Amino acid sequence: MKKIWKVYKPYMLRPIIYQAVTRFSVGLAAALLLDRFVNVNQSQYSAAEFSFLAVGIILLAAAWINYLKLDGLESPFVDFKFRKKKKKKHFKQDIVDFVDEKIISFDELQEDEQTVCKIGSSLLAGACLIIPALLDSYIF
């Protein structure tokens, strides 16, 4: 756990939030599709109990796998590196170029920093899906 806080920097908050919103949206869509097509009876479980909990656990498992990768896990079956082609810079300038603060995107981060961003975003999105599932099961 100390290694995460050693790698984390304040400028990494923006990529964490962007990825968490994306993962939450994909998880929400997957949970609703799971509830629609798998939970046919609708009387056994609600969407919040079954689907949100299942997708939230998957996201927390993804965070754990990324944590193990930060610890040094190298799997021969899973390739953690996805290489993207770099885009050519456009010849026009934006207003962002003149702001004093340097905005750092996810692609500009080092490999350890990217892994910490993935851990944080998976934890945040997983918590946003699991908390309503647990509250729904305890309240009702």
Summarize the structure.
The protein is mostly helical.
Helix content: 55-70%
What's the helix count?
4
Structural class: mainly alpha
Coarse shape: globular
Rounded to the nearest angstrom, the distance between the terminal CA atoms is 35 Å
- Strand % is under 5%
Tally of extended strands?
0
Low-confidence stretches: none
Assembly type: single chain
Rg calc: 18 Å
Order of helices and strands: HHHH
**Overall mean confidence score, pLDDT:** 79
Largest sheet: none
Folded structure, characterized:
The chain has 140 residues and is mainly alpha-helical. It has helices at residues 2-7, 13-37, 47-71, 111-139. The chain has 4 helices and no strands.
Q: What's the SSE blueprint?
A:
Layout: H1 2-7, H2 13-37, H3 47-71, H4 111-139
Helix pairs in contact: 2-3, 2-4, 3-4
Structure characteristics:
single chain; 140 residues; mainly alpha; 4 helices
